[in-house]
Amino acid sequence: MKILVLNGPNLNLLGQREPEIYGRTTLADIEAKMRHHAGQVGAEMDFRQSNDEGQLVSWIQESRGHFDAIILNAAGYTHTSVALRDAIVASGVPTIEVHLSNIHAREGFRRKSMIAGVAKGQVTGFGDYSYIMALDACVNVNASR
Amino acid sequence: MKILVLNGPNLNLLGQREPEIYGRTTLADIEAKMRHHAGQVGAEMDFRQSNDEGQLVSWIQESRGHFDAIILNAAGYTHTSVALRDAIVASGVPTIEVHLSNIHAREGFRRKSMIAGVAKGQVTGFGDYSYIMALDACVNVNASR
Amino acid sequence: MKILVLNGPNLNLLGQREPEIYGRTTLADIEAKMRHHAGQVGAEMDFRQSNDEGQLVSWIQESRGHFDAIILNAAGYTHTSVALRDAIVASGVPTIEVHLSNIHAREGFRRKSMIAGVAKGQVTGFGDYSYIMALDACVNVNASR
Amino acid sequence: MKILVLNGPNLNLLGQREPEIYGRTTLADIEAKMRHHAGQVGAEMDFRQSNDEGQLVSWIQESRGHFDAIILNAAGYTHTSVALRDAIVASGVPTIEVHLSNIHAREGFRRKSMIAGVAKGQVTGFGDYSYIMALDACVNVNASR
Amino acid sequence: MKILVLNGPNLNLLGQREPEIYGRTTLADIEAKMRHHAGQVGAEMDFRQSNDEGQLVSWIQESRGHFDAIILNAAGYTHTSVALRDAIVASGVPTIEVHLSNIHAREGFRRKSMIAGVAKGQVTGFGDYSYIMALDACVNVNASR
Amino acid sequence: MKILVLNGPNLNLLGQREPEIYGRTTLADIEAKMRHHAGQVGAEMDFRQSNDEGQLVSWIQESRGHFDAIILNAAGYTHTSVALRDAIVASGVPTIEVHLSNIHAREGFRRKSMIAGVAKGQVTGFGDYSYIMALDACVNVNASR
Amino acid sequence: MKILVLNGPNLNLLGQREPEIYGRTTLADIEAKMRHHAGQVGAEMDFRQSNDEGQLVSWIQESRGHFDAIILNAAGYTHTSVALRDAIVASGVPTIEVHLSNIHAREGFRRKSMIAGVAKGQVTGFGDYSYIMALDACVNVNASR
Amino acid sequence: MKILVLNGPNLNLLGQREPEIYGRTTLADIEAKMRHHAGQVGAEMDFRQSNDEGQLVSWIQESRGHFDAIILNAAGYTHTSVALRDAIVASGVPTIEVHLSNIHAREGFRRKSMIAGVAKGQVTGFGDYSYIMALDACVNVNASR
Amino acid sequence: MKILVLNGPNLNLLGQREPEIYGRTTLADIEAKMRHHAGQVGAEMDFRQSNDEGQLVSWIQESRGHFDAIILNAAGYTHTSVALRDAIVASGVPTIEVHLSNIHAREGFRRKSMIAGVAKGQVTGFGDYSYIMALDACVNVNASR
Amino acid sequence: MKILVLNGPNLNLLGQREPEIYGRTTLADIEAKMRHHAGQVGAEMDFRQSNDEGQLVSWIQESRGHFDAIILNAAGYTHTSVALRDAIVASGVPTIEVHLSNIHAREGFRRKSMIAGVAKGQVTGFGDYSYIMALDACVNVNASR
Amino acid sequence: MKILVLNGPNLNLLGQREPEIYGRTTLADIEAKMRHHAGQVGAEMDFRQSNDEGQLVSWIQESRGHFDAIILNAAGYTHTSVALRDAIVASGVPTIEVHLSNIHAREGFRRKSMIAGVAKGQVTGFGDYSYIMALDACVNVNASR
Amino acid sequence: MKILVLNGPNLNLLGQREPEIYGRTTLADIEAKMRHHAGQVGAEMDFRQSNDEGQLVSWIQESRGHFDAIILNAAGYTHTSVALRDAIVASGVPTIEVHLSNIHAREGFRRKSMIAGVAKGQVTGFGDYSYIMALDACVNVNASR
Description:
12 copies of one chain form a homododecamer.
Chain A: E1 2-7, H1 19-22, H2 27-41, E2 44-49, H3 53-62, E3 69-73, H4 82-91, E4 95-99, E5 121-124, H5 129-140
Parallel strand pairs in A: 1-2, 1-3, 3-4, 4-5
Helix pairs in contact in A: 2-5, 3-4
C-alpha cells in the first residue's frame, strides 16, 4: 500500500507556531513517526508540504494511479478551497482529512471544511497522533468511497 | 486504563438500519472487536447503549473517578444536546467523539455537533473502525483536555 | 393490518391543556374513536403515549416486524428530534405524521418538522379527526416509502 | 354540503409529469374518484384546474356564499402567492391545503407554504388519496376557522 | 393631468374582506371619492382592478404616453412581483405606491415591497384616504423620477 | 385640531445637505408652507427640530393631552430607536411617519423603520410635500390607532 | 403557598462542575438554603432534580392542582426543549425561570431560552441566590400569568 | 429541429425600455435575426411573448411532442416562479435559459433563478446575441437533460 | 452599601403607559417602595430617570467610587446601546439589569440586550418587584464581576 | 481578433474526472475544437491551463494590450477568488465566463460566482460547446464592458 | 489648516477604563500630544468630548465652513448611529475615523461601523498614536471625498 | 528597525488599474516614497509584490527573526485567506494591514478582512499615504501584539 501525506500552508512552522495549540513537535518529527509506523504496518509513504494551493492541487492530481490513499491536512485551505475539493474527486484516490487541533473548538470559520464532504473521513484534535490514526485507517478500512 | 464506550439512540439497530450508510456490522460485533483490541493494548472497557438522553447524561456523570476516557457516539443527540455537552465538561473525563458515517457528507443538520466543541477530538467516517481509532487515541495520546 | 399510534409529550393532558388550541377531547376519547374506526375498516391498533423521547424511539424501533404502519404525533419533539427521525428510517415502518392543531399557523419554531422529511405524509390541523384521516390513509394508500 | 376543488399550475399534466414523484393517475382520474366519494358521503363538488394565478384568485373569491369549503392544491403558487393567501381570507370559506407529494421531503423552497398559515389544515404526501382525506375532513370536521 | 389608478388582487372584495383591517368602504366607494376629488383638482382619472398579474403589467405598459402618473395598489403582488417592478421602469410613467393598511405593522412578509424601490414614493396606512393623498401628490409634486 | 410636527437630526441642515437627495428647500421653508396650509384647513401647529434622541422622546411624551396628532420625521433615529417607538405608544397620540426621500430606494439600513410598526401610517418620497400630505391625513382621517 | 423547585441535567454535580462558573455550592446546599428561607416566608417547597427531559415534563404536568408556582432551572434543556415549554403552558402553573450563571454572557446558544417566552419571569446570574430571589417573587408577586 | 422561443413580461417593450441596460433592438428585431439564423442552420422556430405567467406555463406544457427544445427568457418571472420551473420539468422538453443583460451584475434579487436548476444551461449578458447562442446550442449540443 | 438606581426613557410615564403590560404603579411608587426596602436592609439609594442616553452614560461613569452597585433599567436603550455597555465596564461598578415586563415574551427585537453581557445578572418580568429583587441581590450577593 | 482562453484548476484532468458531470472530452480535445472554430471565424487564440490562482491572475494581467477578449473557466476559483475578479477589472480586457456543467444545478456553493459580476456575460451548462459559444460571442458581440 | 477632533462616549474615562484594552494614557494626554504635533505640522486643532450623540451631531454640523477636516472617534456610537453618518455627509467636511483599539479583533458587533462608509478613511488599533496618524493624514492627503 | 512591506495580487498594476479608485501612483512610486520616508525615520525596508498567495505566505514565514514588523496589503486575498492569517500568527512578527481605498465603502465582500483580527491595526482609505502612516506606526508604536 502506497500513501501520500500532504501538508498545507504553515505546517512547515510546526513546533514554533502557536505551541499552546499545535504542540512542540515539528513536521520532521511527524514524518519520522509516520515513516516508522508505516514500516511496521507494511505501507510505503510519501510526505510533502507546500504553502501553495496550486501545488497541493497538482500533487493530488498526480497521485492517481501512483498512490492508494491520501492523508491530507490542508490547514488554512481547508475552509475555502473548492479547487482542492475538486482535485480529490477528480483524482479518485480515497482521501482522509486530518487536523492536529480540534477545529470544531476554535474560531467559527474553522468549523466549515470544504474537504470533509468528499473525504473518506475526518480525524481531528489528537495532535500528531491524528496522522497515525489516519495511517491505520488507510491500512485497515476498505477505503473505496 | 479504563475506557467507557457510550452509544446513543438507534445504534442498537446497527446492521439492519440503512446498511448502505452504516454497513452490516452489528453493535455486538463492534463491542467484540473493541474488547479484543482493548485486550491487545492493555485497556479495560465498558460498552453501553441507550436511546435515552438522560441515561447517557447520567452515565457520563458517573464516569468521573471510574474511567480515564470516554468514547462517545451520541448519534442523533450529537446535533442538539446541550445536556450531553454540559455532562462532558462536568465529568472532567476526556471524551472522544466518534461516528460511523461521515457526518460532514450528509444532511446539513448533521454537520453541527454540540459535542465536538468540548471533546478531545473527533473521528468520523470510518465505519466501525472509527471506534478502534478512538481506542488507540485514548491509549496513545496525552488526553488531558 | 396492524397500526401503532404513538403520542408524544403533553398529549396526555389533552382536554385540559389550552382548549382554545387543542379542543376539549381527551386522549382517551381519541383512542376510543380510533379503536371504533379501526374496527370498521378492519385494522388492529396499539395506542400509546409517553413524555419520554427515548421511550418513543424504542417503541418505533420495536415496531419493526410487528406493525404495518405508525401514526406519530411527536408533539414537542417534532421540531428538534434527530433521534426520532433516525428511528423511523431505521425501523423501516411507513410512518404518518399527525398534529391536532395547524402547526403552520403558530409560532415560527413549530413550522419546522424533523419528522416530515422521512414520513410518508403529514396531516395537520383537523383536531382529533387528523388521527382518523391518518388511519384511513394507512389502510387505503400503498404505504411503501 | 358544497365543495370547491381547485388545482393549480401543471396539475393538468398529472400522469405524464414526473411519474416517480406524482404517480400515473391523471387529474381526470382524481376528479372521478372524488365525485364517487362525494356521492357516497352526500356532498356536491365542483372541480377545476388553472395555470393562472389570477384565475385561481377569482375562483376563490367567487366561492363566497356558493361553497361550504375549498380544497386547494395550489401547486407551484403554494410557495410564493400572497394573492391566494389574501383571497382565502377574503372569501371567508374554510380551505384545506392538499399536496400529492410530501412537500416537506423535497427541495427547500417547497417547504414554505404561503397558504398553510390561513388554511384550516394541510394534507400532504398521500398521492391522490390526499384529496379523499381532505373531502372527508370537509364533511366530518367543524370547519369554522 | 391624466392619472391611472390600478388596483391589484382581492381589492374588488373591499368592504366585505377583513373589515377590521380594511374598513367597510367598497372599491366603488373609493373610485367615487377619487373621481370627485380629481374633478376638484382638475385631473382626469382611469380606475381599474384586476386579480391578474399579467393584466396589471400590461396596463402599466400601455400607460406610456397616455397617462402622466400611476397610482398603484398592487396588493398581494407588492411583495414578490419583479414583473410589476420592471413594467414601472419600462413604462417611464411616475408611479406612487399606496396601501390601505399599514403594511409595516402586519406580517413580516408584507414589509418588503418590490415596488417601492422604483416608485416615486409610498403612502401607507390611511385607509381609502391613502388614495386621495396620492392623487394630491400627483398634482402637486414634480413627479419626475 | 392641534398638531405637533417633530424633526430629527440633521433636518436643520435641509437645503444645504445633499440637495440631490433632499432638494433645496430649507426647514424654515417647510415650516412656513405647513403653517400656511394648517391655516387653510383650520389646524394649529407646533414645529420643532432637535438632533437629540432624548429631546425628541420628551417632546413626544409631553404631547399627551396637548396635541391631537404628531407628524414625525425621525431622520437617522428612524432606523434604530426603540425609545422613540416606546414614546409614541406611551403618549397615546396618533403619529404619522414622514420622510422627504424615498427611504425604500436607498441604502438597505434605511429600509427598516422602528417607527412604522406603531405609527398610524407612513408617507415617504414626496420631498417637503410629504409633510403637507401628512397634515391633510391628520385632519381628514379618523386617526384612532 | 406550595412551590415546586425543579432542577435539570447536570445540576446534581453542582460544586464540582466548572466551579469558576457555577461556584462551590452543592445542590444540597441550595435545597437547604431554600428550605430555610421558605420556612421564614411561610411557604412549603418540594425540591427535585433529574437528568431526564421526560421526567421533568411529567413533574411539571403533575404540579397542576398541587403547587402554586414552579421554580425551574432547566439547565441544558432550556435552550431546545419545546416539550418543557408546552408542559408549562399545559400545567397552567405560574413558572419562574432561574439560572445560576449569567446565560447572556456565555456561548451564543445559551442566550436563547425556549422557556422564557412562557415563564412569568427570569432570574439569571446570581449564583444560588437566584433561587432565593425566585422564591421571594413567588410569595410577593401576583403570579397569575 | 423545432424550437420554441418564449419571452416573458416586459420584453415586448424592448428597444424603448431602459436602453442603457437592454439596448435599442426591439423584440421584432430579435425575432427576425433568429428566424434568419434558424433558416441558416436548418431549424424551425416559433417565437412568442406574454406578460402572463399562466400563459407561459401553458405554452411550455403544450410544447411536449411539438418542439425539440425551448429557449426561455422568463424575464421578471425568472426569479420567483415555481410554476414555470415545474412546467419545464413536466414538459420534458430541454430548455435553455437566456437573458439579454448580465443578471449577475445587477440587483441582488436578480441573481437567483428558479429556472436555472432545471434548465440545460444558461446564457446571460450578450444582448440579443444571447438568443443566437442559445439557438446554436439547441442545434449543436446533445440536449438530453 | 450605596446603590444607584437608573431608569431609562419613558419610564417616567409608568402608570399611564400601556398599563396592560407595565401595570398602574408609577415610578414614584417604585422609588418609595425601594426606599422603604433599602431602609429595612440597611442600604442607601439614589434614584434617577432620564430619557437621554448620554445622561445615563454620564451617571454610570460618575458612580465610580460613589456607589457599590447599579440597578439599571435601560428601557428602550437596552437593545441597541453600546455606549451604555461600555460605560458599565468603564465604571467598574457591578450592575444588575432589571425589566418590569418579561422582555423574552414580547417583540423579537426586545430579546437582545446589549447590557446583559456585561451585567452581574438580569431580573425580568416581575413588575416593580423586579427592582426589589435586584436590591436584595445587591445586598446579599458578592457582586464582584 | 486575438482571444486568450484560460482554464483553471483540475480542468487538465477533463475526460477522466467525473465523466457523468463533465463528459469524456479532454482539454486537448476542447483546444483542438476551438482552434478549428477560431480558424473558421478568423480569430487567433491562445489556450492555457493552470492549477495556480496566482498564475491565472498574472496571465489575465498580461493580456492587456495583447488580447481583445478573455474566455475564462476559473473552475474552483470561480466561487471565492477576489484576486481573479480584480485582475479582470484591472486588465480592462472584456472577459466571458464559461462553465462546462450547469453550476446552478449543483451544490449551493457553486451557485455564487465572484467572476460573473465583472464579466461581459456567462455561458454555463453546454459541455465543451460552452467554449464555442463564448468564442462566437467574442467575435459577434461588441464586447466593450 | 483647522482640524476638529471629536471624541464620543466614555473616552473621558481613558486611562482608568479597561487599561488592558485602551492603555493608561488619558484623554488629556492625547489632547496634549496632538496639540504638540499639530504645532509641528502647522495645523490648528479643536479637541472635544461628549457622551451625547446629539451633541456630537451638532458639533459635526457646525464644523461646516469652520474646519477643514474632522477626526472622529465615535466610540460606542460608531456601530449604530445613522445620525452621525448623516451629519458627516451633511457637513461636507472630510472626516477620518479613528479607534484606539483594533475594533476588528473584538466582539462581533464592533466590527460594523456606520461611519466608515462615509469617512475618508479609517485608522484603528494603534492606541493614542491612531490620532497622530489621522492628523498627519489630514495634512498630507488631498482629503476631498 | 527592519520592515517588510508586502503587496498582494494586482497591486503591480497600480496606476493603470481603476485610477478613479486607486489613483495614478504606481507601485514603484510607492516604493520610492516609502524608501525616502524610511531613510528619514531611520528604518530599513524590504518591498515586494506577488500575485501568489503561497508566495506571500512564505515571505511572511521567512520574516521571523529578520524583520521587526510587516506592512501588508493583501489586496484580494484579504477577504478570504486563512493561510495568510495563520502565517501572520505563526511568524510572530507584528503586522499592520493597509489598503489604498476605503474598503468599508465598497462592495460588501470587501468589508470582511481575515487579516484584521490578527493584525496590530488597520489603515485604510488614504491612497499611497496609507503606507507612510503604517511606516510611522511601525516606528512609533510599541508593536507587541
